[in-house]
Structure formats: structure tokens, C-alpha cells
């Protein structure tokens, strides 16, 4: 199809899109030379973002509906098999059908161990093809689930529009991207841009065709620091959602990176930072969050709310969410159970056999931050200093009972004994924990509240814990705890 015919298709689509569903066969009749309907359909697909069109099951095109995405999210139980098949095809293409066994299996396990060790040491990992595949085997399912759980919160808060423009910085092998695509309904229009310089982009590129027909993806093979979101083919306009998923700890200056991208975020958009739950990366992400909110240009939307104007937290805040484990994907099970050329359990390079389950990673545990630039917060209310205690003043309240408000920032941390939960109100200088000394019907919301929910505490006892150098808020039969609705 020549340029004039392509423009003819677009012109007719602009005219007819608000009249009736666009039928490629009908539009073909209106274009000089009557190009084949399949060629017309391809032009409509390529122009869908520009024209605001979504393709229906019947292969007709209609304008995308205005308004926020609305879906029911019940959690993630499994990593989709269609993505697992693509990954295994890539493994077979590189190593052969017996990829989990023998020398190839040993090399993959060696790479997984090396990446994990480097990550824990805070070292940068160079992602060649073999490392990218090993990384995908171990991390793709968990990152898929974690991103979907976090983004589902934005859906629940009606913060993702049906016509959605997304920038995924450090997209890697595509876990967050695939989670996003599967979360969106079929009638949403996704203009997705990935920034990924390494071999992970090759894995992502193979995965994207398995997503929905209304996902329109572009991969920019460059670094986060070098990418200009207003140029480099990313198109004009701002992004409704910017993702920094599992990448901040790998950037030389993550604070500067977030500041550089603020102008690319729509005024009513959200920047999502996501990190693994281990202490170093989770606390490091929170430090970056605080740096770009204490001095601007962002505001914390959730979950580490700042309930007191002018106050900033100073505790370590090792805070992360936990969801149920995924079912074990077949590719992880096969690698974990692999054998060497003699039919014995494959050995690692140091001569030790792999531990059972060492290469199975189905935990869904993650730290995250939702940042905005419009002053909007999930829990947006002002507290009366005369009616509620600030955590910044807890030292003056030791051995007294107070009323206060705080977000629940952990699941139960106790290893036996009374349930224990990390709290934060945005003013804390050191860690604050709620200790559920005696559960009653009036304080049951403490245990049942979800991660990130804000709670109102009435008549809670403040104590100092010398061993932990933290404040304990003792919730007993004299304490009332209630959820605070958003």
C-alpha cells in the first residue's frame, strides 16, 4: 500500500469512527485502488494510538471509551503458560531441547547464582543473552505478579485511564509489562514504551506478541540516563504511568533519574517505583522516595503516607507487601530437578549439589512507592494536633495512652508471640510497631487490615523498646482500632 492509500485509510477512519464501527472491507471500497482489507486492517492497527481506536473480537475498530479502567482483580495464582512457552522456546533455541540438563543447565544455574549474589552485594549486572534468559527463568513470574498487584491498586483507585500511555524504564525481560497488559481489559488502548538497553529487551520483544491486540509497544534500546522521553521516537505528550520496576538499585543516581522524568509524567499521572523486598533494595528505594518528595518534585500517594503537613520521616522503613505464592512454573521445576550427563543431580561449579527448591522462585514480596505531582494522596485528610498524637512526639508519650493515626506498613512480623506490625504516619524518627497484646472485636481491624491501609488508634499505650530501639504501640482490650476509608 502506497502513502496516498495509507492516508486515505486514516482519513476515512477519522470520518467514520464516530458514525459506526470501522470495517476494513468497507474502508477499502472508499480508498483509491481498493487495497486489500487485510492491508487496511494493518494500517488501522498501526494508526490505532493516533486515532484512539481499539480492535474488537469481530475485527471491527471502535473509538476507545473515555474514563478509567475498571476490572475486578482477585490476585495472581499462576504465571501464564503462554509466556512460559515463549521463554522455553528461547531456551531451546539457544541450548537445545535438554536445556535444563547437563552443561547448559549448569551454566543457567551458575548465572542465576551469580546474579543473585551480585544483586545482594549491590553490584551492577551486565545482561548478555545467557544472563537475560537465566534472569527470566528465576524472576519473570514473581515480577509479573508483583507489578500486577501494585497496578491493581491504581485501577481500584480509578487512576488508570482506558486510553493509557505508559513508559517502562528499565523494562528488563518484561515481567511488569506483561503484568500490566494482562491486568487491562480488552477494550483498553495501551501505548507502551519500554526503555531497556540490555539483552533483556530481546526476551521482552518475544513476549509482547502474546499480549492483547490493543497493546501497541515500542522498545527503546538505550539506558534510562540517555533516554529523552520527549524525543527518541517516544512521540509527543506525557505519560499516564511511568514504571521504575526493579531498576532503581542498578542506577548510578536513582534520585536524579526520577527528577529527570518528572516532566514526562502527566499532571494527573502516577510514577510507580517497585523493588524486591530484601532489606538493602527496599530501604534504598524508600530513601530515594524520600529524597524526591522531601525536596520535590513528587508527592507520596501511597503506601507510606505523610499524614502531618511539614513532617518528614527518618526511620529506616524496611516495608514491603506479601502476597500468596504462585504455582511453580514448569520451567523452574525442570531446572530445579535437572540431572547431569550421568543421570545424577547436577552439581554447581564448586561441587555442591543444588538445594531442593533453590531455583524455584514463586514468592510475591515487594516494596513499592506510588508518586504523583498533583498533591493528591490516597488518604487526604488533615489531623488536629490537639486531638491526635504525632509519631514525632512519641518520646513525650511513653507510658501514656494516646489517640493516633498511621498506615499499616507490614504483615505480621512476629515469629511467634503477639502479632507485630510496622506503622508509619510520615513523622516518625525511629520505627514504630503495633503490638496486638489482646485482640477484641473493637481492635480487630489491626490484624485484618491490608498492607498500606490507614488506621485510627484510640487509647493505645506507647512504650519504648530498648532492645529494638523502637516505639511499641500496645493494642489491648482498652484500645479501639478502625480503618480510615480513602
Question: Secondary structure elements and their pairing?
Answer:
Blueprint: H1 3-16, H2 24-30, H3 37-46, H4 48-51, E1 53-55, E2 61-63, H5 81-95, H6 102-120, H7 129-156, E3 163-169, H8 175-183, E4 189-195, H9 200-207, E5 215-220, E6 239-245, H10 254-260, E7 265-276, H11 279-294, E8 299-302, E9 321-323, H12 330-336, E10 364-372, E11 401-408, E12 420-424, E13 432-436, H13 445-448, E14 454-465, E15 470-475, E16 480-483
Parallel strand pairs: 3-4, 3-6, 4-5, 6-7, 13-15
Antiparallel strand pairs: 1-2, 7-10, 8-10, 9-10, 11-12, 11-14, 12-13, 14-15, 14-16
Summarize the structure.
The chain is an alpha/beta fold. The chain has 13 helices and 16 strands.
Characteristic key phrases:
single chain; 486 residues; alpha/beta; Arc Repressor Mutant, subunit A; Rossmann fold; 3 domains; 8-stranded mixed sheet; 5-stranded mixed beta barrel; 16 strands
Amino acid at each position: 500500500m502506497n502513502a496516498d492509500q495509507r492516508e486515505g485509510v486514516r482519513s476515512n477512519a477519522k470520518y467514520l469512527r464516530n458514525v459506526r464501527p470501522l470495517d476494513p472491507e468497507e474502508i477499502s471500497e472508499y480508498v483509491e485502488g481498493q487495497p486489500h482489507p487485510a492491508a487496511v486492517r494493518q494500517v488501522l492497527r498501526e494508526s490505532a494510538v493516533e486515532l484512539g481506536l481499539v480492535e474488537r473480537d469481530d475485527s471491527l475498530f471502535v473509538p476507545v471509551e473515555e474514563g478509567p479502567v475498571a476490572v475486578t482483580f482477585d490476585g495472581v495464582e499462576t504465571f501464564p503458560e503462554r509466556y512460559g512457552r515463549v521463554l522455553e522456546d528461547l531456551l531451546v533455541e539457544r541450548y537445545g531441547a535438554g536445556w535444563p540438563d547437563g552443561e547448559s543447565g549448569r551454566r543457567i544455574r551458575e548465572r542465576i547464582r551469580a546474579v543473585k549474589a551480585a544483586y545482594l552485594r549491590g553490584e551492577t549486572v551486565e545482561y548478555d543473552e545467557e544472563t537475560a534468559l537465566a534472569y527470566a527463568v528465576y524472576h519473570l513470574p514473581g515480577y509479573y505478579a508483583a507489578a500486577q498487584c501494585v497496578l491493581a491498586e491504581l485501577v481500584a483507585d480509578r487512576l488508570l485511564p482506558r486510553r493509557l500511555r505508559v513508559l517502562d524504564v528499565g523494562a528488563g525481560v518484561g515481567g511488569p509489562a506483561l503484568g500490566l497488559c494482562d491486568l487491562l481489559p480488552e477494550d483498553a488502548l495501551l501505548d507502551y514504551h519500554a526503555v531497556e538497553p540490555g539483552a533483556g529487551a530481546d526476551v521482552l520483544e518475544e513476549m509482547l506478541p502474546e499480549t492483547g491486540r490493543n497493546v501497541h509497544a515500542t522498545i527503546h534500546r538505550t539506558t534510562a540516563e540517555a533516554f529523552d522521553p520527549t524525543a527518541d521516537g517516544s512521540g509527543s505528550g506525557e505519560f499516564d504511568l511511568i514504571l521504575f520496576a526493579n531498576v532503581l538499585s542498578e542506577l548510578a543516581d536513582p534520585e536524579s533519574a526520577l527528577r529527570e522524568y518528572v516532566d514526562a509524567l502527566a499532571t494527573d499521572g502516577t510514577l510507580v517505583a517497585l523493588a524486591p523486598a530484601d532489606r538493602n533494595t527496599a530501604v534504598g528505594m524508600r530513601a530515594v522516595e524520600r529524597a524526591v518528595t522531601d525536596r520535590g518534585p513528587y508527592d507520596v500517594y501511597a503506601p507510606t503516607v505523610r499524614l502531618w503537613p511539614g513532617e518528614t520521616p527518618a526511620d529506616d522503613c524496611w516495608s514491603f507487601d506479601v502476597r500468596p505464592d504462585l504455582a511453580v512454573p514448569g520451567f523452574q521445576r525442570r531446572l530445579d530437578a535437572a540431572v547431569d550427563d550421568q543421570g545424577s543431580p547436577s552439581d554447581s561449579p564448586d561441587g555442591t549439589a543444588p538445594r531442593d527448591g533453590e531455583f524455584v522462585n514463586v514468592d510475591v514480596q515487594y516494596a513499592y512507592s506510588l508518586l504523583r505531582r498533583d498533591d493528591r494522596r490516597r488518604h487526604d485528610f488533615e489531623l488536629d494536633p490537639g486531638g491526635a498524637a504525632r509519631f514525632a512526639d512519641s518520646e513525650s508519650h511513653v507510658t501514656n495512652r494516646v489517640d493516633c493515626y498511621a498506615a499499616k506498613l507490614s504483615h505480621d512480623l512476629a515469629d511467634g508471640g503477639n502479632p507485630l506490625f510496622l506503622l508509619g504516619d510520615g513523622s516518625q524518627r525511629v520505627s514504630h510497631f503495633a503490638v496486638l497484646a489482646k485482640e477484641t472485636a473493637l481492635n480487630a481491624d489491626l490484624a485484618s487490615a491490608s498492607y498500606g491501609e490507614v488506621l485510627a488508634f484510640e487509647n493505645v499505650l506507647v512504650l519504648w523498646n530498648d532492645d529494638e530501639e523502637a516505639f511499641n504501640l500496645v493494642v489491648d482490650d482498652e484500645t479501639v482500632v478502625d480503618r480510615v476509608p480513602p
